[in-house]
Specification:
There is one protein chain. With about 750 residues, the chain is an alpha/beta fold. The protein has 5 domains: about 5-185, Rossmann fold, CATH 3.40.50; about 240-345, PAS domain (Beta-Lactamase); about 355-435, Helix Hairpins (Orthogonal Bundle); about 445-595, 2-Layer Sandwich (Heat Shock Protein 90), CATH 3.30.565; about 625-749, Rossmann fold (3-Layer(aba) Sandwich), CATH 3.40.50.2300. The longest helix has about 60 residues, at about 345-400. It is rod-shaped. The N and C termini lie far apart (about 160 Å).
Length: about 750
């Protein structure tokens, strides 16, 4: 075969094994070098090295041949890149690159050249058949002007498919001779050729069968590929349009895919994320989660709805729910993972809101249940506190009615009646004050108040009860403490509550200390007792409404509704101050501290304390010669008031209705009118309007509204209607007498 290639020509060699090709090329090139001709090898690096190894084995001095320009080697892919343009060889650049090599060899004295090239084989391997055929044509064009032989080589497996027969034929046509593969290159005798022909016929039949099977398989695969492509396109569309981030990664945590939703969610583009570690979006404090996930994935486990936190590109955090599925190859090996991340920020926010609402609802329910229990307890206490004095009052009333008592017993009975009446009046006043506090209608008058006077007045009101228990009361009242700006009566109410509690809870022969001093621009009042103390668990709630140091039970040792301290706190805080309770527990007594801001320096004007429920009794007021009309539909109240006024020396007359009152006003020369407000048919407001409509004389009579409607708004309404004074029931007899006397003096003055 080599002798046939001595003449210039374009030959092609098909081969199955590289060793056969390398032996063939070594003989082809070596024969030229040994015959004092030139040799050119344009091959891949492995093939070029194999050829040179065989040439050296023939005893050729390749180094000397290279130095003399007799032997030239070029790397096939690099040489291709010098003249390929958009998949096709450029004729001029080909002539310059390859033709230039052959021209230099001719100039160096090597006119007869053999060349081996596998550039066309590389183009075929890339699927660029048109480029390969065009390159073969350029080789032929180059051969028409040069004296050289060219051997091309193609691996036979490049033409193994049924539809490769036409490219095979086209390539053969571009050459002057096609040399068979190694299997058929040495057939000599007719018997050998007959044997081979028989084998070829058998193989041809088998190949036809195999090709038919492969064709069917390829058609099936093509149909499956079309379906798979459709599924792939749909999956791609789903992934691209998904609102959830869909990310894939390998078992080292390296990101391999990143959909648009992932870009929106985390802020990284696909170009920024793919190829990076998934730890890019994991906060430092959660890096351990990825280690666990990778461990689960390597075991082939799936992770469903794993709530966690990830980090965006801008550094902010996002709450997500992760579902991670292992990616398994055809051999059943886990090779990576697919992640679906859903933004659950809104869900978490809703859950947080729901939890807060649930907690608030539970707190409200607990508070409602607590309030209900406290209401029931309070009603039980109220019932007890009302029934206790009523029992004494009713009992002594019946005793007084049933038989005549001596002077001492009668005085004792009357004292019991008076004491319990005052107690009930105080209970009602406390209830009214608490109602005002709850409704936000507790009024605080503002004027300079001398706290020494306030404290001393409160002390006088509790001293009889303290003396009855042989209690020692020590006071340290700094007169230099300036005035505060506030309501004298309300502050006296606070002190009375604190002092009466101290008296109530201190055992006989105990001690109560009261102090007043100036401290950091605040007046500081302390009331300390050696009484029963306050349980530590109750101390934080001691100022709650309806709360007493003792839990409500049938064994309560001390009376009261548990409102006094709550009212005291409200009054103190309305004055801009604070009130604090301290105790080391039962048996250790207690200390209450009140602080009130001092008023700005100025003239001290201490208001005269009005006669009220906390004040001590005063000398009786006389009403001799004063004519008074009492109007009330309640017989008991009307007769009581008439009696009280007559005992003070007044000429008192009663009326049951507006009509009777008007008749009496016109018939009698009266000095003062006292009227109830809440009466049937026509009330006290209607009465005063009709009285004032009478004009000079009877229409100008001084009038007092004496009513159970005791709110500040009720007082304002009564005065606006035409009354000169408003008094709340129950009223002290002496207070009523003083009010009448003051109105008479005002009219006379």
């Amino acid at each position: 075969e080599m002798n046939e290639m001595d003449e210039p020509g374009h030959f092609t060699q098909f081969y199955e094994e590289d060793a056969f090709l390398l032996d063939t090329v070594a003989k082809f090139i070596g024969g030229s070098l040994e015959a004092n001709g030139g040799g050119v090898v344009i091959a891949t690096r492995p093939h070029s090295d194999g050829i040179e190894k065989r040439l050296n084995a023939r005893g050729l001095d390749l180094a000397a041949a290279r130095e003399q320009g007799q032997y030239v080697t070029l790397e096939a892919a690099e040489t291709l890149s010098m003249f390929m343009d958009a998949g096709s060889p450029d004729p001029q650049r080909f002539a310059h690159v390859v033709g230039g090599v052959l021209a230099r060899m001719s100039q160096d004295g090597w006119p007869r050249v053999r060349a081996f090239g596998e550039m066309v084989a590389l183009l075929c391997a890339e699927g660029n058949l048109n480029g390969a055929l065009r390159l073969e044509e350029l080789w032929n064009d180059l051969g028409s002007g040069k004296s050289f032989s060219l051997l091309c080589a193609y691996p036979l497996q490049e033409f193994a498919r049924t539809d490769d027969w036409k490219p095979f034929v086209d390539i053969c046509r571009k050459h002057s001779r096609a040399i068979p593969t190694e299997r058929y290159a040495t057939l000599l005798t007719p018997d050998e050729r007959l044997r081979i022909i028989t084998e070829l016929q058998q193989k041809a039949q088998s190949l036809e069968t195999e090709m038919a099977r492969r064709k069917q398989t390829e058609e099936t695969l093509a149909a499956d590929r079309i379906k798979a492509d459709g599924v792939s396109r749909r999956l791609t569309a789903i992934i691209e349009s998904s609102d959830d981030a869909i990310i894939s990664k390998d078992l080292n945590g390296i990101i391999t895919s990143w959909n648009p939703a992932a870009e929106r969610m985390f802020g990284y583009t696909a170009a920024e994320a793919v190829g990076k570690s998934i730890r890019l979006i994991i906060p430092a404090e959660r890096q351990h989660e990825e280690d666990k996930v990778l461990t689960w994935l390597r075991r082939g486990e799936r992770i469903d709805h794993f709530d966690t936190v990830r980090r965006r590109k801008d550094g902010t955090s996002i709450e997500i729910s992760l579902t991670v599925s292992p990616i398994i190859d055809g051999d059943g090996r886990v090779v990576g993972a697919s992640k679906i991340a859903r933004d659950i920020t809104d869900r978490k926010r809703s859950e947080a809101v729901r939890e807060r609402l649930l907690a608030a609802e539970q707190a409200l329910r607990a508070e409602a249940e607590r309030s209900s229990r406290m209401k029931d307890e309070f009603l039980a206490i109220l019932s007890h506190e009302l029934r206790t004095p009523l029992t004494s009052m009713l009992g002594w009333t019946r005793v007084l009615r049933a038989r005549k008592l001596d002077e001492i017993a009668t005085a004792s009975a009357l004292e019991v009646l008076e004491r319990n009446t005052r107690l009930m009046a105080q209970l009602i006043d406390d209830l009214l004050d608490m109602s005002r506090i709850i409704s936000g209608k507790l009024k605080i008058e503002q004027e300079p108040v001398d706290l020494v006077t306030v404290i001393e007045a409160a002390l006088e009101s509790v001293r009889p009860a303290a003396d009855a228990k042989s209690l020692q009361i020590a006071t340290v009242l700094d007169p230099a403490t300036g005035p505060v700006w506030g309501d004298a009566l309300r502050l006296q109410q606070v002190m009375w509550n604190l002092l009466s509690n101290a008296v109530k809870f201190t055992p006989p022969k105990g001690k109560i200390e009261v102090s007043l001093c100036l401290e950091n621009d605040h007046a500081r009042i302390t009331v300390t007792d050696t009484g029963s103390g306050i349980p530590l668990e109750i101390l934080p709630r001691i100022f709650d409404r309806f709360r007493q140091a003792e839990e409500p039970s049938t064994g309560r040792r001390h009376g009261g509704l548990g409102l006094g301290l709550a009212i005291a706190r409200e009054v103190v805080e309305r004055h801009g101050g604070t009130i604090v309770a301290e105790s080391q527990g039962p048996g250790w007594g207690s200390t209450f501290t009140v602080t009130l801001p001092m008023m700005a320096e100025g003239l001290l004007r201490t208001p005269a304390l009005s006669v009220d429920r906390y004040a001590a009794s005063e000398e009786p007021v006389r009403l001799d010669g004063v004519r008074v009309l009492v109007v009330d539909d309640e017989t008991d109240t009307r007769e009581l008031l008439v009696t009280v006024l007559r005992d003070s020396g007044a000429d008192a007359t009663g009326a049951t209705s507006v009509c009777q009152a008007l008749e009496a006003l016109l018939a009698l020369n009266l000095n003062v009118l006292i009227s109830d407000i809440g009466m049937p048919d026509e009330d006290g407001y209607e009465l005063i309007r009709k009285v004032r409509a009478l004009g000079p004389g009877a229409g100008q009579i001084p009038a007092i509204a004496l009513t159970a409607y005791a709110r500040r708004a009720d007082r304002h309404r009564a005065l606006s209607a035409g009354y000169d004074l408003h008094l709340a029931k129950p009223v002290e007899p002496n207070d009523l007498a003083r009010a009448v006397a003051n109105l008479v003096k005002r009219r006379q003055g």
